[in-house]
Amino acid sequence: METPTGLQALFFDMDGLLIDSERVWLEVESEVMAWLGGEWSTAHQEQLVGGSIDIAVAYMLELTGADADPAEVGRRMLDGMAERLTACVPMMPGAKELLTEVRAAGVPAALVSSSHRRLIEPVLDAIGREHFALSVAGDEVARTKPDPEPYLTAAARLGADPARCVVLEDSPNGVAAGEAAGCATVAVPGVLPIPPTPGRTVVASLREVDLAALRSLIPAA
Question: By CB neighbour count within 10 A (0-12 exposed, 13-18 middle, 19+ buried), where does 204 fall?
Fold first, then answer.
């Protein structure tokens, strides 16, 4: 598994990193909030970027004070997203090219998302399951991002040392999870800004990232 530069695996976030789904989430969240009797804006969405659906549901119910079953709110959000992702999965610039390069080089990759398995499946179908050795969904771990559990789970399942893995993320929560797991991180900020710090690479687009650059983030063994 180990490459000459020590890179053992790459971990990709999904929403906002590989697929252009944040605008779709905004649409679905707005519809659900209207059903709850409230209004939704991009400012509200910014509170939830990179978080779990359970956090989103709790936030919506707190905002509206609606007497609705949290499970029903969550179901409506999942239904709305699943319907849209099944119809169309727009990829982010540079995502397809990077995934193709990584697969051709034989570097193991994992899709690690806070989204539920139900939403990951149509995305895998659309962008190609062959690009990933495994995937970890938000409803398959006890603690979601910013906790490191999702990335530690992926590393353990691949038999990889987290310190020799690179995480690619678009949200502060995701970057925090990758860094807490001990992985090198590449941030491609989407809805929210992510400042550069020591050990963190920040780029404007996946078009600025190739496998050579990712290998360089891990010291030689």
Answer: exposed
* Beta carbons within 8 Å of 109's beta carbon, 6+ residues apart: 9, 10, 11, 12, 99, 102, 103, 131, 132, 133
pTM passes above 0.90: no
pLDDT per position as a tens digit, 19-41:
998 888 889 999 999 999 999 99
Contact 116/56 with Cβ under 8 angstroms? no
Instruction: Give the pLDDT of residue 221.
Output: 61
Q: What's the CA gap between 181 and 153, in Å, rounded? A: 10
Annotation marks residue 125 as catalytic = no
Average pLDDT, the chain: 93
Bin 197: left if φ > 0, else alpha if -120 < ψ < 50, else beta.
beta
Q: Where does the chain have alpha helices with state H?
A: 22-36, 42-46, 53-64, 70-87, 95-105, 117-127, 149-158, 172-180, 211-215
At residue 168, φ and ψ (nearest 5 deg) are: -115, 125
118-139 tens-digit pLDDT = 999 999 999 999 999 999 999 9
Judge whether 79 counts as a catalytic residue: no
Other CB atoms closer than 10 Å to residue 154's CB: what's the count?
Answer: 30
As given in the structure block, the two tokens for residue 158 are 């691949």
